[in-house]
Amino acid sequence: xxxxxxxxxxxxxSTLVFVTLCAAGGAYETMRESMDRKxxxxxxxxxxxxxxxxxxxxxxxxxxxxVLESGLGESSAxxxxxxxQVARSTRVCAYDRAGRGWxxxxxxxxxxxxxxxxxxxxxxxxxxxxxxxLVGHSSGAQYVRVFAGQYPDLVAGVxxxxxxxxxxxxRLPNYPSFYWxxxxxSMLFPALARVGIARLIYHAASFGDLPEAAQEIExxxxxSTRQAQSQKDEFAELPTALAQAHAVQSLGARPLYVxxxxxxxxxxxxxxxxxxxxxSTNSAHLVLPDITHMALIEEKGGAEASSxxxxxxxxxxxxxxxxLRNVEGASRVCxxxxxA
Length: 340
Description:
seven-stranded mixed beta sheet
């Protein structure tokens, strides 16, 4: 057998092994996703919002209702530390955007306007009445801003937790190159998830101090093919979502609390956060120098600071939109792990 024949034979065998492994991985992943959904059933019935059904979980009681908007790729489970703290003082609702957690996938572009309309329909059909205090973490801030712009009469207050600025492409020097690199990589996510690669990656992943049940649901979420497709689609629409959020230049006098995590923050982040605080004439800005972006949600110290900011806005709304400076503790400067 000459060299060319041996090479062809090797390539044929390698291709056969690769295809066999992909088929086995795909079959295993399909089975595991079915098992995951049986092992972690939704805690509330899904609600049809027009072509797809979505998951919404509300706990606690009182008004205003706090609505939690997750960051890119995240499920409602990652509010596992914050939601119980907020529920002690008012009603709080977390939900899964289309294709995440228990929510079904949806057709069409996943820009901020579409996501805000989904949320509005979800709350309406679940009979969750306003007014709302909207809480957005990371890229979830775009959906909060657009919701406030589209349904201003329903929004009484806003909390932005280390929010991505709408001007990310122009205000953050490193963001454009990161975005285009990550967008190319994200195109591979669905195929990798389909053959079980995402499950291998997230099998032993830790999600900070989240309760174990929430961590299990996060692993279930990030391992699924639906989530990978949903994240890819949402990330592709992020420039549109940012432009839609940029169009909402004022929240009026609604109480607005901006919480900024500065550890490992990228250049330009602090100035952009100051601009976010200027969206309202009644705002407070808490800067946490030793807290990371994800620690605001997943670690006890960061989640405590986030929950306190949410409660301060709730208290302000209850007092007729009282100045956040007059709400006990709202204007404090805090450094978790250090002196207040």
